[in-house]
Amino acid sequence: MKNYIYIFLIAMVPLIELRGAIPVAYAINTADPEFSLLWSYVIIAIGNILPVPFIYLFARKVLEWGKDKRYIGGFFTWCLEKGEKGGQKLQAKAGRGLYWALVLFVGIPLPGTGAWTGTLAASFLDMDFKKSVIAVIGGVVLASVIVGLVCTLGFGAVFGIN
């Protein structure tokens, strides 16, 4: 049970998310074959998706609240400006396919992409809450498939795991 809690918490961490939790789950499975990769995927997905509504609803408000504060104001203002510019660029490139662009942005496991960043971008673009959450969930599923395949191939080559 301890290992499942561990990977759940890793999946909730910004920037690390499932990209870090899935390889950890594979490593745990290598040491303990009784550890279920199937259940770990479910737990990791839940851990990665759980913060999404809160990020959408509150992150922008927190940044706007903090932009004029003494010690954090500069950083919060920078985050707001970066989010606005990035959102406008994404919207200009994606056009009517904005939600598909969000799925791909979250789903392609590169540094700086993921559920946290994608949800924050959706918030900055004032995208529909329900559609944004669905797009982020789709991206999380896509990312978990990609990271899982890379881990399966990598751990299979190194440890002889099928």
Summarize the structure.
The chain has 162 residues and is mainly α. It is built from eight helices and no strands.
Would you mind describing this structure in some detail?
By secondary structure, the chain is an all-alpha fold. The radius of gyration is 17 Å and the shape is globular. The longest helix has 31 residues, at 129-159. The protein has eight helices and no strands. It has one domain. It has helices spanning 2-12, 17-31, 37-49, 52-66, 73-94, 98-107, 115-124, 129-159. Helix content is 78%, strand content 0%. The two termini are 24 Å apart. The mean pLDDT is 89.
List the helices and strands and how they pair.
Layout: H1 2-12, H2 17-31, H3 37-49, H4 52-66, H5 73-94, H6 98-107, H7 115-124, H8 129-159
Helix pairs in contact: 1-2, 1-3, 2-3, 2-8, 3-8, 4-5, 4-7, 5-6, 5-7, 6-7, 6-8, 7-8
List its traits.
single chain; 162 residues; mainly alpha; 8 helices; 0% strand; globular
- Per DSSP E runs of 2 or more residues, the count of β-strands stands at 0
End-to-end distance, in Å? 24 Å
Percentage of residues in strands: under 5%
Mean pLDDT: 89
Structural class: mainly alpha
Q: What's the Cα radius of gyration?
A: 17 Å
Task: Tell me the number of helical segments per DSSP (H or I, 4 or more residues long).
Answer: 8
Given as residue ranges, the uncertain stretches (5+ residues, pLDDT < 50) are none
